[in-house]
Amino acid sequence: MSKSKAPVNPLLQQQKRRISPGIVVVIVLVLALGAGVAVQYYRGHSKVEVSSNGRPEPAVITGPGTAGKGVTVGKSGAKVNIDVYLDFRCPHCAEFEEKTGATVDKLVEDGTATLTYWPLQFVNPGASPRLANAFAAAAANGKAVSFVGELYGDFSKSWTTDQLIELGKQLGVGDAKFQQAVQDNTYASWLESVGKAADERGVNSTPTVFVNGKQLPEDEHTAEGLQKAVDAIAS
Questions:
Q1: What does each of the 235 residues of the chain score in pLDDT, given as a tens digit?
Q2: 55 neighbors 146 (Cβ within 8 angstroms)
Q3: For residues 55 and 52, what is the distance between their CA atoms, to the nearest angstrom?
Q4: Cβ contacts of residue 213 below 8 Å, gap of 6+?
Q5: Pairing of strands 214-215, 71-73
Q6: Is the torsion defined by CA of 66, 77, 168, 95 positive or negative?
Q7: Is the pTM above the cut of 0.85?
Q8: Among 11, 37, 67, 78, which residue has the fewest nearby CB atoms (within 10 Å)?
Q9: Cα distance between residue 208 and residue 96, in whole Å
């Protein structure tokens, strides 16, 4: 005996058809916007947690403030100098730091090489200058290497002014002078001179690396490539 189908309420069928594709698109956009806002809030408010304490912090040979000169760290008299042109909002610079940081630390610590940072500020005009200025303030207090490691170590963070000041405190350089330098963009004119010097040298991208004045090819931006270039001079 066959069963007959229950009668369908025509009003219910009409209600199902009322959710148009346009409404679905709006809902998706609203959800995406909400997720984006949440991500931006996290980037700007996430907790600063220093991981580089204990990393060797070499002496600063040339600090920030000398027009047209980068920040040089290490031991005076080293046979090799490594120039690194970087931007703190450059993801490839973060990759370079991750790949070569330990090798550079060793070369600088054992006196084989000195390291010169040339902070540029063109990748993100809204953030790069602020981060470069904070780096200079940290370098002036002897924390150049650690500061670089922390900024790149948490690249997803916005590094707001408050987060930079907190980072300075955790690195032991967050006194009133450091905070004022961060808030007042104290090293702006020096950073402009560094950018001009980079232009004159033909540097137009980051990271750009020189070993004793010879540019390191991009495909050698690795620990092995850098070590090989240094060994060719130091040995």
A1: 455 566 666 655 555 566 676 777 777 676 666 666 556 655 666 888 887 666 789 999 999 999 999 999 999 999 999 999 999 999 999 999 999 999 999 999 999 999 999 999 999 999 999 999 999 999 999 999 999 999 999 999 999 999 999 999 999 998 999 999 999 999 999 999 999 999 999 999 999 999 999 999 999 999 999 999 999 999 8
A2: yes
A3: 5
A4: 83
A5: unpaired
A6: positive
A7: no
A8: 11
A9: 10
Distance separating alpha carbons of residues 117 and 73, to the nearest angstrom: 8
Residue labelled with tokens 């996430």: 46
The tokens for 121 are 């500020």
Which CATH code, of 3.50.50.60, 3.40.30.10, 3.40.50.11420, 3.40.50.2300, is assigned to 59-232? 3.40.30.10
Long-range contacts made by residues 53-58, C-beta under 8 angstroms, separation at least 24? 53/146, 53/170, 53/171, 55/105, 55/145, 55/146, 55/149, 56/105, 56/108, 56/109, 56/145, 57/142, 57/143, 57/144, 57/145, 57/146, 58/108, 58/109, 58/115, 58/145
> For residue 215, which of 107, 90, 101, 82 has the smallest C-alpha distance?
82
User: In 10 A of CB 211, how many CB atoms?
Assistant: 21
What residue type is assigned to position 218 of the chain? E
Tokens representing 226 are 């850098």
